[in-house]
Give the backbone structure.
Amino acid sequence: MPRISEQDARNLLANVPEEYVFRCCNGTVFYNMSDLGNALSNMSEETFAFHSNLTKHDFSNWVRDVIKDSKLARDLYKAATRSQASKSVAARITFLQGKLPQLV
């Protein structure tokens, strides 16, 4: 498994270009992984099911294709519930933030 550098972590946590933001069916716009995590922890089950079901994997696809985090994309693809998806994003953010220097 490739190691993640500080710069890689910064890139994965950064805002995506405006033309690649995720526009959720409930009107919420995600600019980065943190926005996705916050939204997943608060969105309705119906909204989650609209974007993530047997035939659609919108969150996973966005993370894979735009954010470029294949590990989180795989975890989101496998997540059967909003809660699982939310926990996957939170765990990934915590891991990536651990790669950044700590401010004193």
Observations:
- The chain has one domain: 6-97.
- Residues 61 and 73 are 7 Å apart (CA to CA).
- The first helix runs from residue 6 to 13.
- The beta strands are 22-23, 29-30.
